[in-house]
Design brief:
- By secondary structure, the protein is an alpha/beta fold.
- Helix content is 44%, strand content 14%.
- It is built from 11 helices and 7 strands.
- The relative contact order is 0.16.
Length: 258
Amino acid sequence: MMLAGKTRAGKPGFPWLVFLHGFSGDSREWQDVGAQLPNYPQLHLDLPGHGDSANIAVTGFGEVSELLAKTLVSYNILKFWLVGYSLGGRIAMYHACQQPAGLMGLIVEGGHPGLLDEPTRKARAESDAQWAQRLRREPLDKVFRDWYHQPVFASLNDAERHALMALRSQNNGSALGAMLQATSLAHQPDLRSALRSRNYPFHYVYGERDDKFGAIASELNAQRHVIPNAGHNAHRENPVAVAACLAQILRLRIKDNS
């Protein structure tokens, strides 16, 4: 079984960019950013429970990582950068910590490296279970109206919030609920130690108005990049700046390896 995805052609000799979307997103999430990086061949994936992978169910991060590895092999992707947002960033970090062959670097936007204590994990598991139950039982537009009023999304204006609510409401609620619980932050291992001992470049991107993940970025042994005029959804709120940031990262790394 493979993850569904969409490819974009690039120039010979350039590494692949493998884009992973956030929770309730799909392969379209990074398209605006990817369009501004035309030299790089790209794979925009649908994660389990999302988009054209909605029928794929997993039990945890290990299975997602195995699916990702098999999918990359199926596309004959031998050298690649992982680029992930939020849930996609957490999956990207987990997969990178498995030291996959061909990984050239990791770029994460607003992804959490893992919770540090059991009470916090328990509280998160309970919260995600409640959200998952709502996703399975209630109209999605109602659930996402409340989802996008969480503090982490405070920087969104009304138009941005309504656009996201309409887009995310196209999903399958049961599939989303299952994926939310399978990849809950409560079940994710703390990846800080593995990320510190990595042998690949690690860049962390976050919006200047995203106080929560700005603080998390300071905990990580990563090169940090602040996106102006953006909050937690930086790649949507300021795709031009995010694309320019990625282009600079990749250009410098390719120069270093030449």
